[in-house]
UniProtKB/TrEMBL annotation:
This is Bifunctional diguanylate cyclase/phosphodiesterase. Signal peptide: none annotated. The chain holds residues 525 to 783 of 791 of the full protein. Residues 1-259 form the EAL domain.
Amino acid sequence: AEIEKDISEALENSWFEAHFQPIVDVETQETRGYEALMRLRHGKKGLLAPANFIAVAEETGTIGLIGNQILDDALKNLASISKLPGMQNAYVAVNFSPLQFEPGLPIRIASQASRFGIRPSQLVVEITEAVLLHDNPEVRKILDQIHEFGCRIALDDFGTGYSSLSYLSRVPVDIIKIDQSFVRSIGTDQAIVAQKNRMLMESINAIAHKMNCTVIAEGVETTEQFKLLQSLGVDCAQGYLFSKPRFVPDLIREMTTSR
Ligand code: G
Ligand code: G
Ligand code: MN
Ligand code: NA
């Protein structure tokens, strides 16, 4: 209905934008890369967050076309950021829906990366376990091809699903993103929950490192949470403490005027 109309209008007018949220190195606090978070800049309604339309786009099958616009916008924006001093190795992590894993995806990624002058190592493909749920050999082959090409695979929302651990042996995962729910309790008055989540994050970090994966903690909002993650030896952090997802031209303007 209403939202379907918004989506088709947005597709026609290229209203989908990838906003960038920095992912920072826990030791140096330098930005290593960005997660691309989709927004729909509606001609009349303003900026719409994906919560309003992703489920509908998945049901109606438009998510593939939306995903293509987001991938292109993310690569184009990363190309601009890469030109700034010291940013030539920055990466962008793009979220992919299960429905996007069709046989044409690896070739599309390769051709769009080359079109925008992005090296494969500068693209991270973020998946959730929804992508892996049925252990579809076709999907695994596609992930293998993307990994072989040189892009990294990140497992998002880690620790919240049904059997996240078993995927680590079957899929070429390079990055594990600790879900924000673990970080959120740190520093609240729920001391026992916080203590248990601290131990869980410590264990996830150890497993991930044993599997040669980089660990990113999400949803970091306070200095206290950040310090704890530093002490746990987590590699990178992402969250409002550093920045909200930003419209990339604004981000670039600030990066070029603040130096
Ligand atoms: O950006 P938040 O800002 O509101 O994102 C909400 C949810 O939407 C998150 O679970 C996120 O993974 C998902 N999401 C954000 N951008 C994209 C995208 O480009 N593609 C897909 N499939 N999901 C996205
Ligand atoms: O599911 P996924 O991890 O892809 O989506 C990340 C979601 O979390 C996005 O909606 C993003 O805007 C949001 N987010 C990013 N950083 C923070 C944070 O520090 N706190 C909260 N509450 N949400 C965040
Ligand atoms: Mn994500
Ligand atoms: Na997440």
